[in-house]
Write a structure and sequence with these properties.
Length: 215
């Protein structure tokens, strides 16, 4: 008599803050625009008071038209075939090596229990999470709240010579944060065609009121 293999799945969604090692997760029975919207709302609550730039791969539920994105979260697509740029990949690697070792499980419930325990452990170990996810190129970003809140992701373009270029607008303040924003400086983050980070480049002096610098 033949045998039929029946596969069952669960899906873990995780968002990590590389700067301080904070982590939030949900385990879902499936993934689509609705479950992703639920996770984004959960992330917004976890990181209340922060403006989040979330790096994502090209999965369909990350860019679905029906996706509900909170006002405090900006989704930034990564270049194709570049998982090494996504800090969350190191979370999955840690779980594979430390929670799911070379043994068999008898049910999907056991998988969920181990996965939940592993994610809960990491959520209580910010230094471990930070050491795995705080890539060198993140330290070139201005991550203080006042700057990060008003930093604008402007566009993604093809880099001269190949690869990808992500362009951000960093705020220029009038003397101090209390003085308000005068304008923005455009800064490019360049990656080659393999996804390797190449560095940053200021694209111009920045634009103030009426698109010209005050003298």
């Amino acid at each position: 008599m033949g045998h039929q293999v029946i596969r069952e799945y669960v899906y873990a969604m995780t968002a990590v803050s590389p700067q301080d090692g904070r982590l939030t997760s949900l385990i879902m029975p499936w993934v689509d625009a609705e479950t992703m919207s639920i996770f984004l709302a959960h992330t917004e609550q976890t990181f209340a008071g922060d403006f989040c730039l979330m790096l994502l791969d090209g999965a369909g539920w990350h860019r679905a038209r029906e996706l509900r994105v909170p006002a405090t979260i900006k989704l930034i697509p990564l270049p194709p075939y570049s998982p090494e740029l996504n800090p969350v990949e190191h979370i999955w690697e840690y779980l594979r090596e430390n929670a799911f070792k070379n043994f068999s499980l008898n049910s999907l419930d056991e998988v969920v229990d181990i996965l939940s325990d592993g994610l809960s452990f990491l959520s209580e170990q910010p230094e471990i999470v930070r050491s795995m996810t705080n890539f060198d190129w993140f330290t070139t970003l201005c991550l203080t709240y006042n700057y990060y809140k008003y930093t604008k992701f402007e566009r993604q373009v093809t880099r001269p010579g190949g690869g990808q270029r992500f362009i951000f607008g960093f705020p220029i303040y009038k003397g101090s944060h209390a003085g308000g924003i005068y304008g923005y400086v455009p800064v490019a983050y360049d990656f080659d065609s393999s996804g390797r980070f190449l560095g940053t480049k200021m694209l111009g002096p920045g634009k103030g009121d009426k698109n010209k610098r005050r003298r």
